[in-house]
Every structure is written in C-alpha cells, then in structure tokens.
Amino acid sequence: MKAVCLGVAIACLVAACATTVSPTGRRQMVGGVSQQELNQLGAQAFSEAKSKGPISNNAKQNAYVRCVVAAITRELPPGAQAGWETALFANQEPNAFALPGGKVGVNTGIFTVARNQDQLAAVIAHEIGHVVSRHHDERITRQMGAQGALQILGALAGSRYGEGAGNAAVQSGSILAQTGFLLPGSRQQETEADVVGQQLMARAGFDPRQAVNLWENMIAAGGSRPPQWLSTHPDPQARISELRQRSAQLVPVYEQARAAGRKPNCG
C-alpha cells in the first residue's frame, strides 16, 4: 500500500510540474506547488523572519529601502508591480532577500557595503531577480523530488483536510520554507539573478556599473572570511568580471531610462 501511495504521489508531482524557460533562456522545472501556495509560504517565511527580528525603527533608512524597492518593482510586469512589502532588520550581517508574494528583507549591515543608492539597488534587484526567475519555485520542486513526494505532498494536503494532519503541515511548511526560501540557491541561479537584477536596476535608472563596486566592497569587507551572503555565491572575481562586461552593455539602457525621467532620488 505504501508503494502504491508513493507511486500515486510521485505521479501527481510529475503532473503538477512543468518545464519552462527562465528569463535567460535556461530550462527549469517548476510547479511543485501553486503560485498561491508559493505566495503563502513566502508570507509565512517573511512573518517568521520579522517575528525573530529585531526590526529597525530607523525612519530614514526604512524610507531609503522602500524607495529603492519601489523604483525597481516599477520595472516588473504590470501584475507584479504592486503590493511589495519591505522590512529592515537591525542586523550587522550584510544580507538581503526577496520572497514570492512581494516581500523584501534587508539587514542594516548591508549599508556598510552598499554605500549609495545604486549599490543598494544592485543588492535588491539581484534578490528580486530570484523571484522573477522563479528560483524559489524551482528549488521547492527540486527539493520535493529529492525528499520524497509522499511526505511533503501529504503534508500540504493535510493542511487543508483535517485536524490530525495539522502538525505535519506545519512541519512541511517549515521544510519548504528552509529549502525553498532560506537556503542559498545554486550558483547557476545566483548568476541568473545577477543578470536579471542588473537589467532591472538599469531600467529603473540605477547605474549598472555600481554592481561592480558593490562586490568589490563586499570582498574588501570580508577580509579572510567573506560575508555569508558572498560565500554562497559564485567565485567573486569571476562574478565581478561578468558584472563589468554586462554593465558596459547596459549603460545605454541606463542612460535611456534617465532620459525618460526615471531618476531615483532615494538618498
């Protein structure tokens, strides 16, 4: 019976998944959970992060982050522009994240390496690039297959049907939040988020060349041990080289955006 159930669950998982093409033309498997469930998991992970805090009450810094997020999200497709929520965490680790459902979290420590609005835009646009590229969906779909369809799909179903399955659903939600949202993505995903993010920031009127300066600052701040946000990403020097090459191509996009009136003045 267990084997039959597992087979049915795996068949359901395969049927639910789909092969799609990412913004850079890469084939990816998505659809392990619905967009609605992704948004709910994003909201859950964001709520948990805020509950752990601490949240910064610095009004100027909060307004600064919201301004940059607003400028970048205006360049998203119409249905994805509105409703983005931000949180500024009083945490000295230079880090940031974005989640499905329109959530952005930034640590105050990022200001030690993102020293102007263009560099902060490079960080935030990269994180939003993960959302745009459906990386959370891709990671969850991959993880569901790796951990076993029966356990996770059963927990997701249990969250809807019956009190007895409630604890399993909560546990599954925690697993999915960790594997799909909080753990670092693959290097392939990180490179893709760089590409998409740099394009986004240029279209929003932020200087794409400042992405290079940001990563130089990150390396300098790391000393012998790079910051956690940096250590989970591709080789820093290779990354800087790629960012520099793309920035030269994106300068005309940036200049056109400025000429069209997209001139962020966030601080």
UniProtKB/TrEMBL annotation:
Signal peptide start-end: 1-18
Record-level GO cellular component terms: membrane
One BP term from GO: proteolysis involved in protein catabolic process
Keyword Signal: yes
Name of a matching Pfam family: Peptidase_M48
Cofactor notes: Binds 1 zinc ion per subunit.
Names of required cofactors: Zn(2+)
GO molecular function, one term: metal ion binding
Keyword tags: Hydrolase, Metal-binding, Metalloprotease, Protease, Signal, Zinc
Boundaries of every Peptidase M48 domain copy: 60-246
Family note: Belongs to the peptidase M48 family.
PANTHER family documented for this protein: M48 FAMILY METALLOPEPTIDASE (PTHR22726:SF24), METALLOENDOPEPTIDASE OMA1 (PTHR22726)
Full protein name: M48 family metallopeptidase
